[in-house]
Write a structure and sequence with these properties.
By secondary structure, the chain is mainly β. It is 11% helix and 32% strand. Strands 1, 2, 3, 4, 5, 6 and 7 form a 7-stranded antiparallel beta sheet that branches.
Length: 131
């Protein structure tokens, strides 16, 4: 799997990063979630993991031709919003050796792969049921 860097939200010691893949998906690199209070709210299936990222990370979608904007819908892969406003995402743990070799990831971070359609849907207004 080939990755294309879209952007990161960095502060010293932190580096959540967003990549586009050549397989119609995004790789979201973020902080590993260790907090039991957050994990207890989730049902994490085998092979999946949980990452936490600032919502501003998704502004980098504009570099993939997606209109940049705010997250408007909080639904999977976003499982919840933490008290400090960060997004907690759940998805398949990245295991592709080629992709992982293209990344610089500190020990306290991990990454998930999610379909592009799942991420871009979060930017759309939820119009609700038809009347």
């Amino acid at each position: 799997m080939k990755l294309r860097f879209l952007g990161k939200n960095s502060t010293p010691g932190d580096s959540p990063t967003l990549y586009a893949t050549d397989q119609d998906s995004y790789v979201v690199q973020g902080w590993k979630v260790y907090a039991n209070d957050l994990l207890m709210q989730l049902d994490v299936p085998a092979g999946h993991t949980v990452v936490e990222v600032p919502p501003e990370l998704f502004e980098h979608l504009s570099k993939d031709g997606v209109p940049a904007g705010q997250i408007r819908r909080f639904e999977p892969p976003i499982m919840l919003v933490a008290e400090q406003g960060t997004c907690v995402l759940q998805g398949p743990a990245m295991t592709d050796a080629e992709a992982l070799s293209q990344m610089r990831m500190p020990d306290y971070e991990t990454c998930i792969e999610v379909p592009k359609s799942s991420i871009t849907a979060l930017l759309e207004e939820n119009s609700g049921p038809d009347h």
